[in-house]
Amino acid sequence: MNNLKIAGRQFKSRLMVGTGKFQSSVIMEQALNASEAEIVTVALRRVDINDDNDDILNHIDKNKYLLLPNTSGASNAEEAVRLARLARAAGCEPWIKLEVTPDPYHLLPDPVETLKAAEILVKDGFNVMPYINADPVLAKHLEEAGCVTVMPLAAPIGTNKGIKTIEMVKIIIENASVPVVIDAGLGLPSHAAEAIELGADAVLVNTAIAAAADPVKMAEAFKYAVQAACLAVSACPAPVSNYANPSSPVKGLLKDIL
Fold first, then answer.
1. Which of 2-11, 86-95, 122-131, 180-189 comes out lowest in average pLDDT?
2. Closest among 249, 247, 205, 230 to 35, alpha carbons compared
3. pLDDT in the model for residue 237
4. Domain 11-235 maps to which CATH number in 3.40.50.1820, 3.20.20.70, 3.40.190.10, 3.30.110.70?
5. Residue 103: Cβ within 10 Å count
6. What is the mean pLDDT of residues 47-64?
7. What SS3 string covers the chain?
8. Which residues participate in catalysis according to the annotation?
9. 33: alpha, beta or left, given left = phi > 0 and alpha = psi -120 to 50?
10. Per-residue pLDDT tens for 152-202?
11. What are phi and psi of 39, to 5 degrees?
């Protein structure tokens, strides 16, 4: 597969990593290095963007990673827009992962407020990457509004259940003209590989790495899973068949000559 291209910018890695839930910023930094990710998302409510010595930001090399602020915690479009503008005013690049999750228990994104915020932020010059339910209609509306990706959930945030929205994800991928990033619910490297094999352009993983007993080793495992899936897709997998197809030839055998 070629490099991932978002808003005219190219990335070698198709694995994006979040920065929440790590036991320490040092372990987070080690995991980021092991993942070889190039896009790192950080919740604006958890950091002080204006403080270069913020414990989390101090362990993220801005020359190495695209720092992707996210509006996690915003309950409506107004809050999300305010957070995005604060990040840009503090010197962040105009990239934003848009999250609007008014329900504190399931953290499911609000489709109406997400679209409203996306329309405002796109007009405001942001490269908007919206986190959404696996809703093909909403995905198309967001694309038409000017979002640079769509980011449908595989399962609710932090559940590690894998791709439970597979049929809707397939439709989103089939109809999208912007990169599709599977976000939330991926719990194992095999889940990430499945997403890429389905046709997703990238995956974003946080809890599965940060909450592992060995986050650094898990980050490396996700890296290899995504790389392996990309290689497999590039190899053009053999077609699926409903009937057995012997791997050894059945013609030209001795019984055919006799």
1. 86-95
2. 205
3. 81
4. 3.20.20.70
5. 11
6. 68
7. CCCEEECCEEECCCEEEECCCCCCHHHHHHHHHHHCCCEEEEEHHHCCCCCCCCCCHHHCCCCCCEEEEECCCCCCHHHHHHHHHHHHHCCCCCEEEECCCCCCCCCCCCHHHHHHHHHHHHHCCCEEEEEECCCHHHHHHHHHHCCCCEEEECCCCCCCCCCCCHHHHHHHHHHCCCCEEEECCCCCHHHHHHHHHHCCCEEEECHHHHCCCCHHHHHHHHHHHHHHHHHHHHCCCCCCCCCCCCCCCCCCCHHHHC
8. 97
9. alpha
10. 999 998 899 999 999 999 999 999 999 999 999 999 999 999 999 999 999
11. -120, 125
User: Is the Cα dihedral 43, 44, 50, 53 positive or negative?
Assistant: negative
The amino acid occupying position 210 is A
What's the rounded Cα separation, in Å, for the pair 253 and 208? Answer: 51
How many residues are given for the chain?
258
